[in-house]
Amino acid sequence: MDNKYCPRPDFAREDWFSLNGEWDFEFEEDRKEELEGWIWKTQFSKKILVPFVYQTEKSGIHDSTIHEQVWYRRTFTVPDNMCGKRLFLKFGAVDYKAEVWLNGRFLGEHSGGYTPFEFEITPWMADENTVVLRVTDRPDTAQPRGKQYWKEKGDRCWYVASTGIWQNVWLEAVSGSPITHVKLTPDIDTNTVEAVITVDEYQPEDTMEIEVTYQGRGVKTMEVSLDGYRTRVVIAMKPEDFIDELHYWTPEQPNLYDVSLRLVRGGKLQDHVNTYFGMRKISIEDGRIMLNHKPCYLKMVLDQGYWEESALTAPSDEALRQDILLTKELGFNGARKHQKIEDPRYYYWADKLGLLVWAEMPSGYEFCDREIGNLSREYVEFIMRDYNHPSIIAWVPLNESWGIRKVLVDPAQQNFAVSMYHLTKAMDPGRLVSTNDGWENVKTDIVGIHDYHKEGAGILKYAGTLSGNPESIFPESRRLFAYGTCCDKENSVFMVTEYGGIALCQDTGNGENWGYDRPERSPEDLLRRYRDVTGAIAGIRQISGFCYTQLTDVYQEVNGILNMKHQPKFPCSQMKEINDQIK
C-alpha cells in the first residue's frame, strides 16, 4: 500500500509516519533458537515487503507453504517533527496472533487477523529503534479465516492463506493525552448527530472543542466540558435555509461533513483528531429497504477483495478506489464485501464516492467455545472500527452456516447465531443485519437467499411462496429457515444475496477453474444469461434487491465480471444498461 495516504482517514492525526516497506523476515522453523535469541537477533535471512504477506508475489518471497510461526524485524528512527511527543505504534491488521517487542521490551500481543491494535512506545524509545514481531497463524478452523484455506492448495471457493502483516504499519504522535475513540450517530429525523468521545486520561478541567464543516463552510462550533473518560454530546445540525434539507448522504450525492476534535487541558492542546460523517438513515418500512425514507432497491455485487499478486492486500490505494469506480460503472449501487474485513481506506472511498456496503465478518469453520470467543471478540472490534462509515448499511456476522453447520437443528448453534444478531443491534441499532446470510436463517432483518439457478425460470418458481409460507422454501435444496424459526414479515425483507457466478469458457479451460453451472462461450452469452436471471429476481415483488456473484475472478473461481487483474471482461456499459432498467 502507498505510504503517502493516511491509513485511517476516518480517525486522522496530522503527525504520522509509515513503517511500510522492507523488513527483515524469517520462518521460525528455519532457525531453531530460544525466544531471547529471536528478540535480539540482528541477522535474518530474508527480506519482505510489508504489508504484503509471504504467500504473495508482491512480498518478494512468494511461498505457499504453511509456516505456523514467522518473525519480522525493522529498525527505524523517529522523524524530527514527532520527537518530544507521545508515540504510538499501530498495526492495521496482522493475521493471526502477533507478539510485539521494541528494543527488547515486550509491548503486548493481539489475536485476530482482521482488526487493528496499537501500543504506546514513548517510554522505550531510543535514537535508533528496533521493532520485532512474532506471528503465529495455525491452520485452525476455530479462528476467523474467511476464504483463507487451512491447507496449502486452494480448493473450491477457498484460497491461499494470509499469514502476518497485511495492512499498514505506522507511527502516530500525540502532544499529550490522546482521544482514543469517537462514535458518531447521525439522526436525520431530529437533525442531530450524537458524538460519544472516549479519552485515555481525564482531568476535571478538560474540554473538547468540536467543529463541524461542510465543504469548508462552518456548520457548528462548540466547546464542552468532559464528563469523564466518555462524554456524550448531541450536535444540532441546522439546515442552511428553510427550503433545502440537510445534505444527506446517498450513492448519487455522497455528502460528507468533516469534524475536528481538539482535546484541551489548561489551555494546552492535548490531541487533535479529524473525522467525518454522513447524514443518512437505513431502515425497513412496509417490507422495503429505505434510504433516508425513500425506497432503495439494492443492486449489489459480491466483492472478495483479492488481487493476483497481493492476495488480501490491495496493491495500491488507487486499486481500492478503482474497484469502487468500476462497481458503479457496471450499474451497481452497492457491494457485499464477502468474508473479509477490508482495509479502512476502502470504506473511506466508498463513503467519498458513494457506494452502499455490506460489512461481513470472516467465518470460522468449527463450532466450539473457541470459535464463539474468537468470532465474537473480533466482530466487536470490527464494528467499533467501522461504525462511523455512512457507506456501511448492513452487517453480516455469519454466512451460509459456516462455523454453525448444524444450525438447522442444533439449539446451541441457533442461540449463537441469534446472539450475534442481538450483539450487533446492541452496538449498532441503526443498521440492518443479515445474520446467517443465504442459508438456514434465524432472527434477522434481511432474509438472504443464495440461488445459483442458471435460468430465471428456476428462481421464479418460489416467487409466490414469499408472501405465503416462506419457511417452506428450499433454494439450493436447503431450508430457508432453521427449525423452530419463523419469518418476521413485519420487520424483515427478502433479498437474493448470491446468484449468477457465470464464467466464460475461455477461463475454465484447464479443468481446475470453475464458475457456477455451465460456462458461457462469449461475453454476449454471459450478458444474456445475466439479463435473464437478474430480470427474474427484479420481477419478484417481495424481493428488495440482489447481490451478483461476483466482481472479480479469484484464483480458481473464474466467475468474475473482472479478471483477477481487475480488468473488465467486456465494456462496463453493457452491464450497466441492464442494471439501469431495474428501479
TrEMBL record:
Stretches assigned to the Glycoside hydrolase family 2 immunoglobulin-like beta-sandwich domain: 179-280
Pfam families (alphabetical): Glyco_hydro_2 (PF00703), Glyco_hydro_2_C (PF02836), Glyco_hydro_2_N (PF02837)
GO biological process, one term: carbohydrate metabolic process
UniProt cross-references to PANTHER family, sorted A to Z: BETA-GALACTOSIDASE, HYDROLASE
Occurrences of domain Glycoside hydrolase family 2 catalytic (ranges): 282-442
Gene: ebgA_1
GO terms of molecular function: beta-galactosidase activity
Glycosyl hydrolases family 2 sugar binding domain location: 18-140
Protein name (Swiss-Prot/TrEMBL): Evolved beta-galactosidase subunit alpha
Family stated for the protein in its record: Belongs to the glycosyl hydrolase 2 family.
The organism's place on the tree of life at top rank: Bacteria
Enzyme Commission code(s) on record: 3.2.1.23
Top-tier EC class: hydrolase
Key words of the record: Glycosidase, Hydrolase
